[in-house]
Specification:
Number of strands: 0
GO molecular function: odorant binding
CATH architecture: Orthogonal Bundle
CATH class: Mainly Alpha
Number of helices: 6
Pfam family, one: PBP_GOBP
Shape: globular
Keywords: Signal
Order of helices and strands: HHHHHH
Strand content: under 5%
InterPro entries: PBP/GOBP (IPR006170), PBP_GOBP_sf (IPR036728)
Largest sheet: none
Radius of gyration: 13 Å
CATH superfamily: Pheromone/general odorant binding protein domain
Structural class: mainly alpha
Number of domains: 1
Length: about 120
């Protein structure tokens, strides 16, 4: 359940400040949709695969990853800059977090988990 909290936290910190009013209203819907997509709506202990599916879905829905699973670095940067003003720190966070992994699911998981620790 830790990852779900991280994803929701990242969405609130990075996403809500830069989301449109429509997207802000959709956050509970996005969370629910991604929980269902990952098969986690009624599950207490997720598998790593389920967490990865959830993370990818969430990252796509808040505009950090494309439908094809590629990190949208400019969008990640813009969202991080909403909360972190130091350009050098933003660059360091991007180098560490915006890393394309072997699968889109692994990429989404890494991005969301990394942002939750590096850009709190």
């Amino acid at each position: 359940m830790h990852l779900f909290s991280c994803c929701l936290f990242v969405a609130v910190i990075l996403g809500v400040q830069s989301l449109t009013d429509e997207d802000r209203v959709r956050l509970p819907e996005i969370r629910e949709e991604c929980l269902n997509k990952a098969g986690l709506a009624h599950k207490v202990i997720p598998t790593i695969q389920e967490e990865q599916i959830y993370s990818l879905c969430f990252a796509k829905k808040i505009g950090l990853i494309s439908e094809s699973g590629n990190i949208l670095t400019d969008k990640v940067k813009a969202k991080v800059k909403k909360t972190i003003k130091d350009d050098h720190k933003v660059s360091e966070i991007l180098k560490k977090c915006a890393v394309q992994k072997d699968t889109p699911e692994a990429t989404g998981f890494h991005l969301m988990e990394c942002l939750s620790t590096e850009a709190p």
